[in-house]
Amino acid sequence: MKKLINTPADVVPEMLRGFALANPGIVVLGDGVVARVDRAALRAKGQVALISGGGAGHEPAHAGYVGSGMLTAAVAGDVFSSPSADAVLKAIRAVGGPGGVLLIVKNYTGDRLNFGLAAEIARGEGIAVEMVVVADDAALADSDENAGRRGLAGTVLVQKIAGAAAEEGQSLEEVARLARAAAASVATVGVALSGCTIPAAGKAGLELGPDEIEWGLGIHGEPGVERGVIPTADEIVDRLLGHLISDRDLGKGDQVVMLVNNLGGTPAMELGIIAQRAVTQLAARGIQLERLWVGTFLTALEMAGCSLSLARVGDKALALLDAPTTTAAWPAAHLGRLATHEPEPEPNPTVAPAAPVDERLWRSVAAICKALIDAESQLTELDQVVGDGDLGISLARGARAVLEGKAEYDGGDVAATLRGIAATVRRTVGGTSGPLYAALLLRTAAAVSAGASWGDAFGEGVGAVAELGGARSGDRTMLDALLPAAAALRTGDVSDAAAAARKGADETAGILARRGRSSYLGERVLGTVDPGAEAVAIWLAAIATELSTVEVS
């Protein structure tokens, strides 16, 4: 791996500080949040605030679109990993005012969960919040057999239209309506000539031969819907454009705008070749191209490839797309000069010392953390095969944070300790795993407080995972290990639960995925266990081993 970085752990905060130094209109607030420097004035006049974000690695999205006429704030998680609900909530609190807040979210499970949870909390605090989910990936059918169409580069067009409407002083309801209309009108499809490498993983999850191309892929380095021999640029455009026109049911006389997007490692020369063919083909079909943008809008790190986005537009949408903006990344934006202000320091609250954690509970917690840290490489390799490669990294990061945060947990009460660990997990574990494990811990804590046995309490926690994630047994998720473990623990001991989890995890190797990023891969997942279920089997085995050691001693 060759990258211009210091350490993988510092990539995101250092990148955001660099962005802010080059753009005097934005400031770093910490926890992956950047916002407009004039946000207080916007709140005072009641302007709707726009927030978007997701995992890092898609730059210039989304920090590059923070500025007048587009986003008020952006939230970046770790590379290809959703920001935590706490980080999103921090952004909402920083920019939300009487005008309310609109969240523009790409359709990935982790993003929807974390942005959705933050919105729910903010509404409870009296902040009006709407959420628009962008699912513009035309390569996938929208069905119950997968996690739905993914959010791709068309998200940027939605941000531009909604941002201009907010700048005009439109209400939250109207801005949200325009954003939903824009999201419904845009479709995107892409191709890749190479994979990309997450800094912490050290190698690409997608490997293509010298004459291979991947069709219909997402923006996280995962495989697409088809692999083949690379054709000419004109043949690539004709296929992509034909698919988009069919998907949007476009015909002669329709007005459209088009975004030709660099996925990260494509030279401007090649983008120009793609663009000229696309324009020619639209004209040949009698489709009226009103606007064309060619450049780097939403990437997958250094991936070589491109995507095309088409959206049917009317006069109102065109006017909003033409409206002025001062962002760094939109083509008409003023890039600005070197910032004279320093990024705002991240808060470092003083934590009062807590009572010692219950020793028996902490030994189990420590065993879980050690097992997940030891399994980081194993889980990363599994996730690179069937996902985006971040699970091992995310769980190990959360495990280290839990070990380091021992002094923060109230050990005088087991439920309070579990709630404290849940707060650490949701803050440090990105993507889908963070909110799901936090929900598991919170519901288990509530049941323990109500006097439930550990078996019943754990079962309640597993139920919370099913409710929040929307999955069920046989969907090839962590629940395929959690559900049998919970059933075994109600009638047996931890060893029985660990054995049931191991059996459930092993059986996922023969299951087609219906949820998560694995659902996009079809039969490619067969023969490989689900990484989330494998993680559950690992940490339950660690508890069983620890408790048996305690009993023997």
Folded structure, characterized:
Strand 5 (101-106), helix 4 (109-124) and strand 6 form a beta-alpha-beta unit. By secondary structure, the chain is an alpha/beta fold. The protein is 46% helix and 14% strand. The radius of gyration is 24 Å and the shape is globular. The protein is built from 18 helices and twelve strands. Helix 11 packs antiparallel against helix 18 and helix 17 packs antiparallel against helix 18. It has helices at 11-22, 39-44, 85-95, 109-124, 154-167, 172-185, 233-248, 268-284, 315-322, 359-374, 376-386, 391-404, 414-428, 433-449, 454-469, 479-491, 494-507, 531-552; strands spanning 26-30, 33-36, 49-56, 73-79, 101-106, 129-134, 186-192, 212-215, 226-229, 255-262, 288-295, 305-312. The protein has a six-stranded mixed sheet with strand order 1-2-4-3-5-6, with helices on both faces. The protein has a six-stranded mixed sheet with strand order 9-8-7-12-10-11.
Instruction: Sketch the major β-sheet.
Output: 6 strands, mixed
Task: Please trace the helix and strand order, writing H or E for each element.
Answer: HEEHEEHEHEHHEEEHEHEEHHHHHHHHHH
Trace the largest sheet across and list its strands.
1-2-4-3-5-6
Rg value:
24 Å
- Total DSSP E strands: 12
Low-confidence stretches: 333-341, 349-354
Helical proportion, percent range: 40-55%
Question: What portion of the residues fall into strands of 2 or more residues?
Answer: 5-15%
Number of helices: 18
Q: What's the overall geometry? A: globular
Structural class: alpha/beta
Distance between the termini: 46 Å
Integer average pLDDT: 90
